[in-house]
Design a protein that fits this description.
By secondary structure, the chain is α+β, with helices and mostly antiparallel strands. Helices cover 38% and strands 19% of the residues. The protein is built from 11 helices and 9 strands. The strands form 2 sheets. A 7-stranded mixed sheet has the order 1-4-5-9-8-7-6, with helices on both faces. Strand 6 and strand 7 form a beta hairpin. It is elongated. It binds 3,4-dihydroxyphenylalanine. The site of 3,4-dihydroxyphenylalanine has 11 residues, from strand 8 and strand 9.
Length: 349
């Protein structure tokens, strides 16, 4: 009988050497320790023994059981340790050189804004900034856009509740606060702060109540420009914009000024451009920006004498430039943060 017990230990050890998984282990355990297992069957043999033989057999049986259980415990620990190691994946070798990793790149709209700013910096423009929340007066009245002008319509403008408080905005009268609909309000803020001659550009985010479709977004970006000096003429305006647009779109560019209307410039123009290197937009006249000579009424409002000072202003959509430069036909791509789109313009390392 004791030989049988020894054979069971040997059997358990042999089975366990082949066990690789928890399922194998459970199966092996049933073979030895389960209700029909070999050790359980051997234990039943106690009934055939005489009273005298039983204690010795019982003792041997207990020892065998302990041994076998010990073997199973060790085997289970090995299986679990191996499973943990496997879950860590391939072993790494710390002596290998580092794997190159990618840093994030800048957004295509940031790239265009930086490019625009750097082109104007070269000809002496500095950057002016103001807050995205404006008063109605700076956004409209001061720019010759009276209260009944359609641009102020609740259809176009995002108004704040009358009782909202803003500590960073000079409150003029009791006018409403709005999310600025254009960066042109920075012209007025700059003219109050600085004396001419001055040249500034003001890149920034603007908002209009607009249904989002392929070419419109309620949130977009502009760059405003303002140049005020003695004897500034339309020729200066045209020369500066030609220089700027050629730097941006290439030397083969042609431009034209088309008469238009903006309340704060007189005369006003739309600038169109045509270039052979713009993909499917090549060699077509494309409207790119608004501009004009600063209206004398605007100059008077900031206490400048229009007989002494003249100037020009312009406003350009950053999204529009990026769309023309890269042949993008849906403005919504800029705001969806889809890596497949963004990585195409990435300057990431
Ligand atoms: N503020 C105008 C807009 O949002 C753009 C613009 C047009 C700005 C003519 C100007 C300008 O400074 O002279 O549509």
């Amino acid at each position: 009988m004791e030989n049988d017990l020894q054979a069971i230990v040997t059997q358990a050890e042999a089975i366990l050497t082949a066990v690789r998984s928890r399922a194998d282990w459970e199966q092996a355990k049933a073979t030895i320790l389960g209700p029909n297992g070999s050790l359980t069957q051997a234990a039943k043999g106690i009934g055939k023994l005489s009273k005298e033989e039983r204690p010795a057999f019982g003792q041997a049986l207990n020892q065998t059981k302990k041994k076998v259980e010990g073997c199973f415990k060790t085997s289970l620990e090995l299986i679990e340790t191996q499973a943990d190691i496997n879950s860590l994946g391939e072993k790494s070798d710390p002596s290998l050189p580092p794997v190159p990793h990618h840093l994030g790149g800048t957004h295509p709209l940031t790239n265009v804004r930086r490019k625009v700013v750097s082109i104007f910096r070269k000809i002496g423009f500095t950057v002016a900034e103001a807050t995205e929340v404006e008063t109605e007066w700076f956004c409209f009245d001061a720019l010759n856009t009276p209260e009944d002008h359609p641009a102020r319509d609740a259809q176009d403008t995002l108004f704040f509740p009358a009782d909202s408080k803003w500590s960073n905005i000079a409150q003029n009268n009791k006018e409403h606060h709005v999310l600025r609909t254009h960066t042109s309000s920075v012209q007025i803020r700059t003219l109050f702060k600085e004396k001419p001659p001055l040249r500034v550009i003001a890149p920034g985010r603007c908002f209009r109540r607009d249904t989002v479709d392929a070419t419109h977004s309620a949130n977009f970006h502009q760059t405003e420009g303002l140049y005020v000096d003695k004897n500034v003429t339309i020729k200066d305006l045209k020369a500066v914009l030609d220089y700027f647009l050629k730097e941006l779109f290439g030397d083969q560019l042609e431009t034209r000024l088309r008469p238009s209307f903006f309340p704060f410039t007189e005369p006003s123009f739309e600038v169109d451009l045509k270039a052979p290197n713009l993909g499917k937009l090549s060699n077509k006249w494309i409207e790119i920006m608004g501009c004009g000579m600063v209206d004398p009424e605007v100059l008077k409002l900031v206490n400048l004498n229009p007989d002494d000072w003249t100037g020009f202003a312009f406003g350009l959509g950053i999204e529009r430039v990026a769309m023309i430069l890269h042949g993008i036909d849906d403005i919504r791509h800029f705001y969806q943060n889809d890596q497949r789109f963004l990585s195409q313009f990435s300057n990431a390392t």
